[in-house]
UniProtKB/TrEMBL annotation, chain A:
Residues 30-68 form the Iron-binding zinc finger CDGSH type domain. This is CDGSH iron-sulfur domain-containing protein. GO terms for cellular component: cytoplasm. It comes from Labedella endophytica. One of its GO terms (molecular function) is 2 iron, 2 sulfur cluster binding.
Automatic annotation (TrEMBL), chain B:
It comes from the Bacteria. Pfam families: Haem_oxygenas_2 (PF14518). InterPro entries: Haem_Oase-like_multi-hlx. This is Iron-containing redox enzyme family protein.
Length: 75, 347
């Protein structure tokens, strides 16, 4: 959600560090069985670590496995 | 649908000591019909002089709770005539000052990160890292009896039937992108345009599905001080503009410690044989708070630290205070159950 959105794009996808993809805007997701998954909220978090129990959505479980999306910061 | 905002309480309020007795007595009258409220100020003096631990002080926490409900309604003062009474506000400010002083002296705050969005978010995630060991969530998932599960809902009811309201006080107190982030979260809390999707309304269905009364305040006399302290903490942070950093940090920590426990709560209620009408609230929060925690950590707390660097310390204080007080509440409930007792207030 950084900066103004003047691109006119309907959907914005933001990867959050060590976490899910946050999706803002109207989307329909096609599930593995070809069925539509229509989000029930305006902003959704998509699983990026692969272990969510409610895929395609994030359930926060990535925190239990120390999921990292970037190289560790140097101290 | 149960509308949690309009029910009138089924029970009268009962004082827990001389302070709440003074307040409840005053609220029965009319502001114009009374002398300057010297008895109230004296009662505040006495309560503060007597108090050793404000978090577990039944009289003080219950009084603060009632004072905050003057701003939201639904419990007492139906005409709203006491909301801005100067004497009551002055008394509340003194109680808040003592509450805050105790918190500042006891809440462990981590070393401050650089005041940058990503660094603040990383510190908050570290602070709220799920921990092994005994937890209320695991107890509820694996062991809680039906009565204990109902008790858990009663404990949650003072906040959750009004879910999200205390943090909403912060909306006009923030500006720019942190306000946008807070509203994005709160909009979801309030159902994003659908009354039946308000989290408070979903929780009311859970309460009723478990055979309990979803009227606001129905179980007030059963609620112990520490549970009120958890709610009063949010109200105090939200209603005081100087504490806007703390309320932002509080919401971040609150959201960041929610998804994983809520899965356990849902498992516990399913284990006890309840259906989707009861577990929906918890299942909803697994998904919702996995979204909210990202927004709260990065876009609310992280952005606020960049935009108002002087608030960085309070953002971490608010987050840490949330964790400490909510852990005291959760420990009280779990330890009561492990000892074979009820966690509700003994009268």
């Amino acid at each position: 959600m950084s900066g103004d959105d003047r691109s006119g794009a309907a959907v914005r996808i933001s990867p959050y560090p060590d976490g899910p993809l946050i999706v803002r805007g109207d989307v329909v997701i096609t599930g593995p069985d070809g069925e539509d998954i229509v989000p029930t909220r305006r902003t959704v978090a998509l699983c990026r670590c692969g272990i969510s129990a409610i895929k395609p959505f994030c359930d926060g479980t990535h925190k239990l496995m120390n999921f990292r999306t970037e190289a560790p910061a140097e101290d | 649908m149960t509308d949690t905002g309009t029910h009138t309480p089924s029970a009268r309020l009962h004082a827990r000591g001389s302070l709440s007795d003074s307040l409840l007595h005053i609220l029965e009258g009319h502001p114009d019909a009374v002398e300057p409220l010297t008895t109230w100020h004296d009662a505040v003096d006495d309560a503060l002089a007597r108090a050793t631990d404000l978090i577990t002080d039944e009289d003080i926490q219950f009084t603060l709770f009632v004072l905050y409900t003057l701003h939201t309604g639904g419990l007492t003062d139906p005409d709203g005539i006491w909301e801005w009474n100067g004497d009551l506000l002055a008394g509340r400010a003194r109680l808040e000052a003592a509450f805050e002083r105790q918190l500042r002296a006891t809440v462990p705050v981590p070393d401050l990160p650089r005041g940058e969005r990503a660094a603040v978010a990383a510190t908050l995630f570290e602070l709220t890292q799920p921990s092994p060991g005994p937890s209320l969530a695991r107890f509820l998932a694996k062991k809680a009896t039906l009565d204990q599960a109902r008790e858990f809902l009663i404990q949650r009811s003072v906040y959750t039937l009004r879910e999200a309201d205390p943090h909403s006080w912060a909306i006009p107190r923030l500006h720019g992108r942190s306000k946008v982030a807070l509203v994005e979260i709160q909009s979801d809390e309030y159902g994003a345009g659908r009354a039946d999707r308000q989290h408070a309304a979903i929780f009311a269905r859970t309460v009723e599905g478990a055979g309990l009364d979803a009227t606001y305040g129905a179980y007030l006399d059963d609620i112990p001080a520490v549970t009120f302290a958890s709610l009063n903490l949010m109200s105090m942070f939200g209603l005081n503009r100087r504490l806007r950093g703390a309320i932002a940090g509080h919401l971040a920590a609150f959201e960041m410690t929610s998804s994983i426990p809520n899965r356990s709560y849902a498992d516990g209620f399913r284990r006890l044989g309840f259906g989707d009408d009861v577990t929906e609230y918890f299942d909803e929060h697994v998904e919702a708070d996995a979204v909210h925690e990202q927004i709260a950590a990065h876009d609310l707390a992280g952005a606020l630290a960049e935009d108002e660097p002087a608030l960085l310390a309070d953002i971490l204080f608010g987050a840490s205070a949330c964790l400490m007080v909510d852990e005291l509440m959760a420990d009280h409930i779990r330890e009561s159950w492990e000892a074979g007792r009820s966690s509700l207030r003994t009268r």
